[in-house]
Amino acid sequence: MNSVRFMIMLILLIFVTFASFQGAMSNLAKAIEGQSEFSFLKIYTTAGSSTYSFAVFMGFLGPLFGIMLGFDAINNEQAQGTLNRLAAQPIYRDTIINAKFLAGATVIFMTVFSLVGLLCGVGIYRTGIVPEPEAFARIVFYALFSSIYVSVWLALSIFFSVIAKHAATAALSGTAIWLFLTLFMNNVAQGLAGAAYPLTGANAQANAVKYYALEVGLSRISPYYLYSEAISTILNPNLRSLNLISLIQQSQNNAIVSYLSLGQSLLLIWPQVIALFALAAIGFAAAYITFMKREIRA
Amino acid sequence: MMDAESIIKTTDLTKKYGAVTAVDSLNLTIRRGEVFGLLGPNGAGKTTTTLMLLGLTDPTSGSAEINGFDCTRESLSVKRMVGYLPDNVGFYPDLSGRENLIFSGRMNGLTEQECADRSKELLERVGMTYAADRRAGTYSRGMRQRLGIADVLMKDPEIIIMDEPTLGIDPVGMRELTALIRDLSVKDGRTILISSHELYQIQAISDRVGIFVEGKLIACGKIEELGKQLQNEGLYMVDIRVEPADDVVADKIRTIEGVRAIGKRADGSLHIESGRDIRKELLTLLLENDYTLTQMHERGGDLDEIYRKYFDKAGENNDGTSTDGGKDGKKGKSLKDRLKAF
Q1: If exposure means fewest CB atoms within 10 Å of the residue's CB, which of A30, A115, A183, B92 is most exposed?
Q2: Would you kindly state where each structural domain of chain A is located, as residue ranges?
Q3: What domains are there in chain B, each with its CATH number?
Q4: What 3-state DSSP class applies to B28?
Q5: How far apart are CA B156 and CA A254, in angstroms?
Q6: Is B139 touching A (CB cutoff 8 A)?
Q7: Backbone phi, psi, residue B92, to 5°
Q8: Cα(B156)–Cα(B139) distance, integer angstroms
């Protein structure tokens, strides 16, 4: 926690938090026009004219934070020559990798909740809007989902730290996957869906629904997409569906003006949350198994 | 071999990496309280053996036992009794030496107070008190090695396994370290298994030695015994250097009864192998034929000769033992065969 890279990342995140807050402040009035409830949540989702919103920043930078915490977990111990000394102590071997993951996850939860809380506090102070209990509950869930999302990347980077001998290889592998899934997965999904169900030609009309289903299905491989769906629902009670209906709704300019309750919002995104959780579990399980099977030598 | 006091015992311990057999049905018994030197060139399987003893690597077949605990299945009990000093031991560079020791102590279930007391005492013992609160990242290799010994002693182990403890340490540091290790056995009564490829150090430290080559233990016993075993085989070796170093001298020596082989080294000295002690006759012969003997060195009585052969074979170059650069692959092979015989 005292390490240079943690400080760099923390300062960066705090800096981004304030930048996004300033951006949100400048456009907040426009964003909450005509809405009386849940305006506080807009602090997290409103983008400024030149900055992204806090939610978008978290979606982008959160993975980097997770990768940073895990990429040298095991291979650095090995490079330092401390791993075999550690393994020779009377502790079970899985204690080592469990501790690595739990320590990282603890730091993630603390950091994410601090940042979200910080934004909440500053938001109340600067806007004078006090979040309703339900809005507050939504913010807590938002922080929780963000933490799980970052933990997915922590698990992945710990896995790379087990299989890659050099910390740099592990860091680059993790970053490459992050870049691909975050920036390009959607494009790839569109391309593949377009190839399978062309939107031009005779069957264009019939293909439209299938095309959309395939595109979304492929996109959902990416934890970034799952996370985006989860948090946009939890932070926007107006969002009522995550399938084709949502597009129709949007195109009709929010035809139905009423809100989903917190329970209903959670129900809507439950699959996404479970999938995120499963991804973290799978990543950690892969790291765990490879580490346990491995021979520890200098 | 069937000593009641045996503390480490391996039975047909074998480890294979694919087609390569790193350790080949090793049967080794180490008695309580002794210092056992595992001697062998790099890649002989020494480290793999120590890892299997600690349960860090699973054997392909066979088993190892320490104090009645199976090293693979009850590795936790084993690791409670056994201290392991890996070669090139590492410490967390951002913690001080003392903090590193305390960390190890905590993992062995000591209370904070015990950790503090014991680390202080051990730092004193290994002579590291002056640097105890410096970051371990700034330590030299010798300091790391000494801190490593203190680290091993944090859990107060009955048995200590050391892997190449003096590798890359200067002669003064080596002497200190050797004395320290010897102390652990003599004063504290701990059993020590020390693996190394440095013959002289092993000779100075160990009660018994096992010679380990290509995964096999080819000789095992006290150093004097090993030498004697060789001589009992009826092999006497002498290196001489005479003046003038002409070509006929070898032929003349060959007339002595019992001489089996004479070889000429690149530096002009002669290597003589015989089935009995021929030194007296050799001197007389040289005197009679008007040669001056400038050097005479009896070989074979110590491990030096035996061991060098394996080193040559393994492509190793040990500066401690390669003083006479004579390489004779054929002879090395016959020697190995002789060694295998017992």
Answers
A1: A30
A2: 4-293
A3: 6-221 (3.40.50.300), 228-340 (3.30.70.100)
A4: strand
A5: 72
A6: no
A7: -65, 115
A8: 24
Quickly tell me which residue has 């809005």 as its tokens. Answer: A135
Q: Cβ–Cβ of A88/B90 closer than 8 Å?
A: no
**What's the pTM?**
0.79
Q: How far apart are CA A193 and CA A220, in angstroms?
A: 13
Backbone angles phi, psi at B197, to 5 degrees: -110, 5
B108 contacts in A (CB within 8 Å)?
A: 89-90
Residue B51 has its nearest CB partner, among A2, A91, A297, at A297
- C-alpha span between A292 and A182 (Å, rounded): 30
| Residues B250-273 pLDDT 10s | 888 888 888 877 888 777 788 888
Cα separation, A241 vs A245, whole angstroms? 6
A45-54, A154-163, A251-260, B172-181, range with the lowest pLDDT = A251-260
Residue type, A98: N
Are B62 and B12 spatial neighbours (Cβ–Cβ below 8 Å)? yes
pLDDT the model gives residue B238 = 82
In the 8-state DSSP scheme, what is residue A50? S
Q: How far apart are CA A296 and CA A81, in angstroms?
A: 10
Q: Does A278 score more than 90 pLDDT? A: yes
Place of tokens 């992945």: A156
Q: How far apart are CA A34 and CA A32, in angstroms?
A: 6
Asked whether the bond before A237 is cis by omega within 30 degrees of 0, the reply is no
In A, minimum Cα distance to B156 occurs at: A89
Q: Are strands B82-85 and B159-163 parallel, antiparallel or unpaired?
A: parallel
Q: Chain A interface, mutation test: which of B52, B56, B80, B160, most A Cβ atoms within 10 Å?
A: B56
Q: Supply φ then ψ for residue B99, to 5 degrees.
A: -65, -35
Question: Residue B20: beta bridge partners?
Answer: B17
Residue A215 carries which side chain, given as an amino acid letter? E
Give the integer Cα–Cα distance in Å for B239 and B272: 6
Q: Given pLDDT bands bounded at 50, 70 and 90, which one contains residue A256?
A: low
CB–CB contact B107 A84 (8 Å): no
Only one residue has tokens 């439950």, namely: A270
* Structural tokens at position B297: 């060195």
> What is the amino acid identity at position B206?
S
Angle CA(B248)–CA(B252)–CA(B256) in degrees, nearest 5? 160
Helices A93-127 & A262-293 angle (0-180, nearest 10): 150
